[in-house]
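Researcher: I'm comparing several assemblies side by side, and this is the next one on my list. It has 844 residues spread over two chains. Same procedure as the others: predict the full complex and return the structure.
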Amino acid sequence: MDGFLLLAFLFLIAGVIAVPIASRLGLGSVLGYLIAGIVISPILNLLHVDVVSIQHFAEFGVVMMLFLVGLELEPRMLWTMRDKLLGLGGLQVGITAALIMAIAMALGQPWTIALAVGMVFSLSSTAIVLQTLNEKGLMKSDGGQSSFSVLLFQDIAVIPMLAFLPLLALPELQEMAAAAHGAADDGHGSISLVDRLNGWQRALVTVGAIAFVVIAGSYLTRPIFRFIAVARLRELFTATALLLVIAIALLMVVVGLSPALGTFLAGVVLANSEYRHELESNIDPFKGLLLGVFFITVGAAIEFELLFNNLGEIVGLTLGLMALKAIVLYGLSRVFRIEGAHRWLFTLSLAQAGEFGFVLLSFSVASSVIAPELAERLLLVVALSMLLTPVLFIVYEKWIVRRFAVSQEREPDEIDEEGKVIVAGHGRFGGIVNRILLSAGFKTVVLDYQSEQLERLRAYGVKVFFGDAMRPDLLHAAGIEEARMLVIAIDDKESATELVHYVTENYPHVYIVARAMDRHHVYELWSAGCRDIIRETFDSSVRAGRSALEALGVHPYDAERQVRGFVINDGKQMFDLASSYDPDIPAHENEEYVRRTREYLDRYADAMKGNSAAFATRLDRGWVPPTAEDVEAETSKAADDD
Amino acid sequence: MAKLIVYYAHPGHKYSHVNCKMSRAALEVDGVTYVDLYADYPRFDINVDVEQQRLLDHDVILFQFPMFWYSTPSILKEWQDIVLEHGFAYGAGGDNLAGKTMILAITAAGPEDAYSAGGYQHYPIRDFLRPLEQTANLCEMRFAPPYVLYSALKAPKVGEVEPHVEGYRDLLKSIRDDRYDFNAGGVNDVFGYATLPIRKES
């Protein structure tokens, strides 16, 4: 227990100190974690901590990340990117592996080792690249999407690679391993079900497992989540979400598939579900922490002794590898017409080896494909190239974006419909706002936490997500960072005000339209920072007033102008009073506020008695005919002119 | 430096091929006030005080609009009806606009030869613009010959849009820099991008 606490403390403090510093210096969180790992590695050594096993554990963060990536990708989107996925990804892995194999053979390695090394190095780091792309908001760009396609293909390609590697086993290494391990099983300690099955049975189990994930994801999750939503316990949701991911991962391991692939698939299946954002916000912190631990272990696993003893060789190999990968990527980007700055993003972001390289390397050693001494050096190359990745992103940001920013001047589009609108609350009010936005072609994300209501709306094809907009993590999952606007139509007054507060403070770029329940709520929302406040019943009251005037015989156009005048005056007054309102002082104790309110009340009273023109507005101007004197003056002037 | 305000009125802004580009060009010229009337007053409740102040603050008033039924789009008429008040723009004490200049930048769907006694529009285009001209006269403003694009609907096909928009940009800049000759042309003339009376020096 003490050991665990100490370890947790070490990892956390290293991360908490290093990451903010790295972020502030513009290096990104990944480099921060890596540096943290390097810094604490002597202490870990001193404590005899098994960094590699922690790393294996933390790799689960990658699995979670792919689940989250899947959640963002609807099946339709996946289908539209199939060309890039297979073409770009397949060619990248194939060409890179072949070239590396050729070079390794030229350096005197037997073809089996050369091929294994080629496969290890052809992969890039999903963890670093996706994390960084997301952090920098580059994920949706052309370059980001292409990088993602390649990473996804690589993650899938790991599975056949793992199956293929044992076939490359070297007899002499096998003998050595057998001697070392004695009669022990392969060091994998697997719980695999499929080991004893033959080919077609294996295939059947695999297909069955995937079908199970797809079908269960489509039909089982909804009733389960509905069941849990009724309990209204947050941690229960978190537990269920975790359970879901872990269960799928476990299933995949049991049938010998990649857990990352399985959870990715589950994510895609659930991408259309109303619980998507809820799942996202629950899994996201775990993913973040585990990936953090993962990167720290990568930093900590760097064996500096070995590195410094072979500095030239390893640095040379790393740089050579990265250059080679970059050249292949650059070539592919030309073939696939990835243009401008995107081409460089694609080229630079994927030029490293990745965490699956570690997995494949340790598996290769275990399968007697590569000798441990060689594997250690290759491990260093992988780690070093990952360590250098953030530097490449910095190069991209500092040099390339700038260069292309100047040359890529384009005419701005007339109406920019990119960027979505988050509608919080889909009741009578939010529902109409949502319908109007949708019919105008804007993208909306609707959040509501009444699962019965969701059920009904879904039946009509309205896309609504389960979730409480008051929760920052859920807002984040719904995409508040890249949202253009937030429409607040939730029933609870205090919650609405609080939400305005939170969003204006943390996401000042988001425009807020808020519903106010009454006059005081307007002032609350105003002082919380909202500048577009719609009173719930104001417009309908105004319309009722106009109707009444018309029915009383007022000419419809006069009635219209009358109520317009009323609206303008009322708005002015509202603004005036809102500025003197202080949410910290009860209204009746706020002298300035009371004084102004009384002023307005007096003017109302006068107007009622017909003593003043309190309702006279700019709309009474115009069409007012000149007076008789005016006409007189005009005629005499005309006479003068003649 | 003349203070120039551009009033743009087009209810179908997003379907426009020429006026939208002209208005974007106007937005990009420094030192020119640009007002999109339909954007400022989507519900037609024109603020008389604001508009009169705008008029007081500028020397040259430019109206940019497509010809609709031989006249302006309706919001511009509403604007005239209530902003050009008696006592402000005309009549007793109404000399606030005296000495200022009014100029139009308009697009017309019909071809140039249609706007003549023998053409299907029967009258020269200046005749349809007489109400605005006389409005300027009554307000003691100078009315300069308008900047016109004929056959505006066919302009994109024949490559007339870009030169017209460029001409518009030059027009605005030259007015701003006092290089535009408002006195050029007679009461029946209009200018196109090739004939704008712009001087090199102010």
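Model: For your comparison table: Chain B has one domain: 4-176.
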